[in-house]
């Protein structure tokens, strides 16, 4: 993910740009929480399917859902860190301007 603000100098970042960065930071955190919620849902549903149902198709679905939940969590962490690091570069740039 390329940083869109890299082409601007410190003097060109205005309040509107800084507020946009703050909104993007909050949206990134909200998205990360959605990834966690989805991962936990898949993981817990998978455990529930394996533990409490006797039909083989439901148990297979549960066995598939458990690693899928872990995979979703890992993808969420990777995406959060990627966006977070690019936003930190922008914040450092704007704070050095002040």
Structure characterization notes:
- This protein is an all-alpha fold and 98 residues long.
- The protein has one domain (15-91).
- Helices cover 82% and strands 0% of the residues.
- It is rod-shaped, with a radius of gyration of 20 Å.
- The relative contact order is 0.19.
Q: Share of helix among residues?
A: over 70%
Q: What oligomeric state do these chains adopt?
A: single chain
Biggest sheet layout: none
The tally of strands reads 0
Q: What is the SS-derived class?
A: mainly alpha
Q: What letter string, H or E per element, gives the SSE order?
A: HH
Supply Rg: 20 Å
**Proportion in β-strands:** under 5%
Ends distance:
26 Å
Coarse morphology = rod-shaped
Topology:
Blueprint: H1 15-52, H2 56-97
Helix pairs in contact: 1-2
Short description:
The chain is mostly helical.
Characteristics:
2 helices, 98 residues, 82% helix, mainly alpha
